[in-house]
Amino acid sequence: DKANTFLSIKMRMPDDGPPSKKFKYTLQHKNNGNHVSDKLQQERRNLPIYPARGKIINQIQRLDTAILIGETGSGKTTQIPQYLLEANVNKNAIIAVTQPRRVAAITISQRVAEEQGTELGQKVGYCVRFEDVTSENTKIKYMTDGMLLREAILDPLMKRYSIVILDEAHERTIHTDVLFGVVKQAQSRRKAKGIRPLKILVMSATMDVDHFSAYFNAAPVLYLEGRQYPVQVFYAPEPQSDYTFSSIVTLFQIHRVEPPNKDVLMFLTGQEEIESAVKTIRDITRSTEENMAPLVVCPLYAALPSHAQLKVFKPTPRVCLYIYLKDKKLTDIEAITEGCRKVIVATNIAETSVTIQGIKFVIDSGVVKAKVFNPNSGLDLLKVVRVSKAQALQRTGRAGRESAGSCYRLYTEQEFEQFSDSTVPEIQRCNLSSVVLQLLALGISDIVNFDFMDKPSTESIIAAVHQLHNLGAVVKETSIKLTPVGRKMAAFPLEPRLGKTLLIAKEHNCLEEILTIVSLLSVDSVIVTPQSKREEALAARQKFVSSEGDHVMLLNIYKAYKAVKGNREWCMENFINQRNMRTATEVRKQLHDICVRMDFPVKSCGNDSTTIRKCLAYGFFMNAAELQKDGSEYTSLSSRKTVSIHPSSVLFRCKPAYVIYNELVKTTKCYMRDLCVVDPDWLSEAAPAYFKKKKPGT
DNA sequence: GAGCACTGC
User: Boundaries of each Helicase ATP-binding domain copy (predicted)?
Assistant: First the structure.
């Protein structure tokens, strides 16, 4: 019945006109087959960045550090490394170009290799986790920011690079933020030591230029012009109480008046909300009496199976003519026959990670689901919050990538003015234990005074150091120092607790099993429980269940998965997410290789699950809880807070006296997720000092 | 008896 009111929102233009000049043309990457060079070279010369080529080279030639502002797609990411290479600004050494995402590093390097007329992995290559496609001939190396950071642990001066380009710096990923300080330090140390100079190029699409420049010792800023398409912005005339409803209303408002070949991108917050909106939209199109063009509705979020994600990229099909022929004029039909409309209902995955062709309309709810971290409680909380102005702008820009478009903001202009300018950098929002461990491994001991562009709070740094201290990774002398244990932990791409658990497993000769468990804990859940087939899923899972907890069950699942060689049908039948299982297998292989390199004997303890649980207790003693006297709930041993067993755990409805858990999530209650039954004696053995006041089980 | 934004090593 809500559907009948869908003209209730009237949009109006902002007083000062659309902020459309911000949005620029996007380079379309096409594979041109065999006759590469001439056509590709011509395409390169046609890019808006091309006329600025000489100037850019000159500037970078004489500068140590430069900041380059240009919208995504101005061609800067593909062209600038090539310009520098062609003018040999890199002096025959390697140019590193970082990207926040794997897929970007891979696809961009493919394109650049093509433009250079070389095989990928030769002059141009890429390096991301699990994949190193470079050789000794590689001069331009695209890589994830996290990869360069990990390399820096082995070589803090980054000696193999003469130029480091930090691309998409405005995204402020935790890795880019740490790299800012690390490259700056490498540059000045190399200068002091008389080693070949290191040039730093920071590329960003941000408006926050002054902040970047000030941080890099007033580095000059180069601006890039690009082609642009205007996006008209509309605001809601009054605050909206139900953004999902308003989004759907707006969609149909667009759908009734606009030519149907123009697709719509709608931003909502999460899987459940998206699926319900998709259903509502489909129901309305089915039940309406109006002659509307058909709508193809596609949900899009990261957890969606990849085959369903691919639907988004399919060209929108031609329209079913018969719907319109009966009472429409021919002129109307012409407009309609260009295609029916596709509407994509997405999370913020469509802001940066996924680019869809043909979007002319964006509907922005103005909200996003974000992780909020509280350093005092150590609790992560997933909350629906307002987007930042920068994020809203990013969403708006998605409407103008190929031609002019429109963006409907489901908030008033006054509300927009209240949004924060930019999203709080990740480094100020999350648990820092991994970052602190990495910085210490890089030889940086004074973390509180490290040269961050935006400092994380002192409390969160102290909390991280504290955790590392409890794990025996650091000692506090005159300064904070990494112990041999901490040094080994830093070698693994794992959060510190999991890294420590591996080291313990080595001592207990059960690395074989713990490698599996740790890998499964560090990827997204491999267990699927669809609402519609809940009973079926639980029945299928029954054969893996263990009374000792979720970790042992995960191990059982992995063994069964390996026994059928990762068979797809088996995964379907057993409600196992094959994609995440494959990732876990890759993680395991990587961790295994590191163990071998470090001369760790990878031994199996067979079916001795007690040893496995003991290792987990030794590594996770900070995440332990005891059953309360009345047997109803648990008390966390570290914070003395009341916590409960998450209903997804195999231990739900069981009442073991002591458990350790992988993580705590706060929703309606404080829930422990991924639990393992432990003996209280193991906890006090693991950390006698930690449990000095009260020994568990006494 | 609950509910899982998005990346990355």
Answer: 57-225
Can you give the pLDDT at residue A5?
27
- Digit-coded pLDDT (tens) for A529-582: 887 888 899 999 999 999 999 999 999 999 999 999 999 999 999 999 999 999
User: Is strand B within 7 Å of residue A665 (CB)?
Assistant: yes
Residue A102: CB less than 7 A from any atom in strand B: yes
Count the Cβ atoms, other than its own, within 10 Å of residue A611: 17
A594 CB-to-strand B distance under 7 Å = no
Please tell me whether any atom of strand B lies within 7 Å of the Cβ of A493: yes
Kind plus residue range of the DSSP H or E element containing A619: helix A609-619
Residue with minimal CA–C1' distance to B7 is A101
In whole angstroms, what is the distance from residue A108 CA to residue A418 CA? 37
* DSSP output for A327-350: T--HHHHHHHTT--EEEEEE-THH
Side-chain-facing half-sphere of A500: CA atoms under 13 Å: 25
Find and list the nucleotides of strand B having atoms within 7 Å of a protein beta carbon. 1-9
Distance of alpha carbon A224 from alpha carbon A222, whole angstroms: 7
Give the least confident one: A19-23, A41-45, A85-89.
A19-23
| Angle ∠(A30,A125,A148) on CA atoms, nearest 5 | 120
**Residue of A619, A634, A639 lying closest to A687 (CA atoms):** A619
Looking at the predicted structure, is the pLDDT value of residue A13 above 60?
no
Looking at residue A25, what is its pLDDT? Answer: 26
- Furthest-apart CA atoms within chain A: distance in Å: 86
What HEC string does A278-293 produce?
Answer: HHHHHHHHHHCCCCCC
Lowest average pLDDT, out of A316-325, A420-429, A665-674, goes to A316-325
Structure token pair of residue A416: 């927009």
**Average pLDDT score over chain A:** 87
Predicted confidence (pLDDT) at residue A328 exceeds the cutoff of 50: no
Residue A289 confidence (pLDDT) above 80: no
Which residue's C-alpha is at the least distance from the C1' of B9?
A: A493
A301, A270 Cβ separation under 8 angstroms: yes
The helix or strand, by DSSP H or E, that contains position A663, with its residue range, turns out to be strand A658-666
- Residues 335-374 on chain A lying near strand B, CB distance under 7 A: 347-349, 353, 368-371
Count of Cβ atoms closer than 10 Å to residue A574 Cβ = 19
Residue nearest to nucleotide B5 (CA to C1'): A369
Q: What is the 3-state secondary structure (H, E, C) of A465-511?
A: HHHHHHCCCEEECCCEEECHHHHHHHCCCCCHHHHHHHHHHHHCCCH
Beta bridge partner(s), residue A164: A96, A200
CA distances (Å), origin A322, targets A48, A269, A337:
44, 36, 11
Residues of A 225-284 whose CB lies less than 7 Å from any atom of strand B: 269-272
Q: What percent of chain A shows pLDDT beyond 70?
A: 90
Name the residue with higher pLDDT: A518 or A429: A518
Q: Which residues are CB-contacts of A484 (< 8 A; sequence separation ≥ 6)?
A: none
Q: Is the pLDDT higher at A371 or at A25?
A: A371
A301 touches strand B (CB under 7 A): yes
